[in-house]
UniProtKB/TrEMBL annotation:
Assigned EC number: 3.4.21.107
Pfam family, one: Trypsin_2
Family membership noted in the UniProt record: Belongs to the peptidase S1C family.
Protein name: Serine protease Do
Keywords carried by this UniProt record: Hydrolase, Protease
SMART domains named in the record: PDZ
Signal peptide start-end: none
Example of a GO biological process term: proteolysis
Length: 477
């Protein structure tokens, strides 16, 4: 008779597990420490500079829509600033920052703040909206810490990644995850993206996705969400693609890419059978642009593309493959089903026509002000008790009230806003517009000016550099 002996399960070696976890933590910590100096927070300013009370005051002058008695009035769209905050990475020690186009495009002023707290204004911003990549050339920047770039073609699903960005303006925020897909096509991108589950939130765009060696493998684009919050699906542009785009933006000012000039829609088996019983898949040509390469090659609306460069188009074929190779001048062969016959069409990609937009010039104030200091870009008016109450300034507030800030001026770039009062200029107290004008007329305009500003948020100092304009004068009443 045998005796049954209970066998105790082998105790898990917790020490080994802890050492393994600590090892990964150490790697992530080292990556963050090494790369943080090259990460910047990007700020894009758009529209007129106003304090919130000044904006509400200006909106109150506009005709208001009718609201029923039981309708609770909500702040209008214009009450919200069009300013944006994102992230970026220094890729050139002489001051070139790589970021996302949607963060900085159409901005009136852009500046960045480095990890050590320094502030640099943009000398130039060049965007490529199609790829959502942009570069920022910084003013008076040199010897900046640049990040190391990896080869994103070496990535594999399951690789650990570290994200480093400034979500919600929380600088040097670190998150970790794994790569879910190395080539995820999404409708909004002309190239495949890196899908990962490292945290991605508003303000992360333009930040870096890193490998465990501390090399940039991707530029964070955004996340897929149905709730507005992160749901574990983040996307990044592979650094090989971003690097190529950045180089073209730096050297040419635009990205050279080809296009065909037609639009398609995948056919389901049922849809395909209604066109021709011999096919169960294909790309239906729903539009052909006039004077496009497709138009010149003879492609027609209603054609069904069944092969692309010899590759059959089935249910798993990704339509983005048609434009994945964007080299202008390269020829491609398409097999097209037309009127129950197969036609071979050779199509050569061409550079798309470039749209030349208006050049944004420096704008002057167009609102009411008693005096325009054009060297600083400020329209000024007298401050009275009524305005002090409307703009939520302290009862003891004094000085010259800023009612306009010139687009493109140093004041605009430094965040000076209408609704602020200038309480002091350098070491002199200011009580009204006349006193401001008298004091500033004696200043050496080759030197910066130190202003003490008062707003509904308190007082703060700002140092402004004057422009070359010296034609100060009276404005509109």
């Amino acid at each position: 008779m045998s005796t049954l002996v209970a066998v105790e399960p082998k105790a898990r070696d917790r020490t080994t597990e802890i050492l393994s976890a600590n090892s990964l933590s150490s790697v992530v910590r080292q990556v963050a420490d090494d790369v943080s100096p090259s990460i910047v927070t990007v700020y894009a300013l758009r529209g007129p500079r106003m304090t919130a009370p000044m904006r509400w005051r200006e909106e109150a002058k506009l005709p208001q829509p009718f609201h029923s008695p039981n309708h609770q009035h909500a702040a209008s769209f214009n009450s919200h600033s069009a300013d944006d905050q994102g992230s970026g990475v220094i890729i050139d020690r002489r001051g070139c920052v790589l970021t996302c186009s949607h963060v900085v495009e159409n901005a009136d002023a852009v500046f960045v703040r480095t990890a050590d707290g320094r502030k640099f204004h943009a000398e130039a911003v060049i965007c490529d909206p199609q790829s959502d990549i942009a570069i920022i050339k910084l003013e008076i920047a040199e010897n900046l810490p640049e990040a190391k770039l990896a080869d994103s073609d070496d990535l594999s699903v399951g690789d650990w990644v570290v994200s480093l960005a400034s979500p919600y303006d929380l600088q040097r925020s670190v998150s970790a995850g794994i790569i879910s897909s190395t080539r995820r096509w999404v409708a909004s991108s002309p190239h495949p993206l890196i899908q990962n589950d490292a945290a991605t939130n508003p303000g992360s765009s333009g930040g870096t996705l890193l490998n465990l060696r501390g090399e940039v493998i991707g530029i964070i684009e955004g996340a897929f969400t149905t709730s507005g919050e992160f749901q574990g699906i983040g996307f990044a542009t592979p650094i090989n693609i971003a690097r190529n785009i950045a180089e073209q933006l730096q050297t040419k000012g635009y990205v050279e890419r080809g296009y065909f000039g037609f639009e398609t829609q995948p056919l389901t088996p049922e849809m395909a059978s209604l066109i021709d019983s011999s096919v169960n898949a294909g790309l239906y040509v729903k539009d052909v642009q006039r004077n496009s390469p497709a138009n010149h090659a003879g492609l027609r609306e209603g054609d069904v593309i069944t092969k692309f460069d010899g590759k059959p188009i089935n249910q798993s074929f990704d339509p983005a493959t048609l434009t994945a190779d964007t080299e202008p001048g390269k020829s491609h062969i398409m097999s097209v089903l037309r009127e129950h016959k197969v036609v071979e069409i050779e199509m050569r990609m061409q550079q798309p026509p470039r749209e030349v937009g208006p050049i944004q010039s420096e704008m002057s104030p167009n609102g009411p002000f008693e005096y325009l200091d054009s060297s600083l870009g400020l329209g000024l008016s007298s401050l009275n008790t009524s305005l002090i109450n409307e703009l939520e300034l302290p009862g003891y507030a004094h000085g010259a009230l800023i009612t306009q800030v010139v687009f493109g001026s140093d004041a605009y770039r430094e965040g000076v806003a209408a609704g602020m009062a200038i309480a002091r200029v350098n070491d002199t107290t200011i009580h009204d517009v006349d006193e401001y004008r008298e004091v500033t007329s004696k200043l050496d305009r080759k030197k910066p000016v130190l202003l003490l500003l008062q707003s509904n948020q308190g007082k703060h100092l700002v140092m402004l550099h004057t422009s070359r304009k010296e034609n100060d004068g009276k404005g509109k009443n």
